[in-house]
Amino acid sequence: MEKNEIIGSVDFSRGLVPAIIQDFKNNEVLMLAYMDKKSLEKTLETGTTWFWSRSRKEYWNKGKTSGHFQYIKEISVDCDGDTILIKVEQVGAACHTGNRSCFYRKCKGAD
Q1: Element (H or E) spanning 9, and its range?
Q2: Which residues does residue 19 pair with via DSSP β-bridges, in sequence order?
Q3: Which residues of 12-28 are buried (b: 16+ CB within 10 A; e: fewer)?
Q4: 102-to-25, 57, 62, 66, 79 alpha-carbon distances in Å
Q5: Low-confidence ranges of the chain (pLDDT < 50)
Q6: What is the pLDDT of residue 72?
Q7: Can you give the pLDDT at residue 19?
């Protein structure tokens, strides 16, 4: 798909959409953030991830302050057009805690 096709396939009619960030080499889920049309456009223009911060109410480029950039390798949109999957080359940690993934807390089994 072309960049405009990707943007056009996302349903932003209800506002922000979740963006799942995944390591392109091993498919590890690194984080989940939120995007609007402008942040997706900036991501496609720059080749690094841009998100909308719901807490700070501003756009942020992952890695701008930490140096832990996410370089885009592939972008997919789900069948309903309401979730974005972005595969990246992750530099350093994806999580603000310093962990590689935000999903570092695990529960074994569901008994």
Answers
A1: helix 3-9
A2: 33, 84
A3: eeeeebebbbbbbeeee
A4: 17, 21, 13, 15, 25
A5: none
A6: 98
A7: 98
Q: Strand pairing of 50-53 and 58-61?
A: antiparallel
* 3-class SS of residue 39: helix
In sequence order, the β-bridge partners of residue 17 are 35
pTM for this model (two decimals): 0.93
**H or E element at residue 42:** helix 37-46
Rounded-to-integer distance, Cα 71 and Cα 13, Å: 27
Average pLDDT, rounded, for the chain = 95
Burial class (CB in 10 A: 0-12, 13-18, 19+), 70: buried
Beta-sheet strands, E only, within 10-78: 17-23, 29-35, 50-53, 58-61, 70-77
**The pLDDT of residue 102:** 96
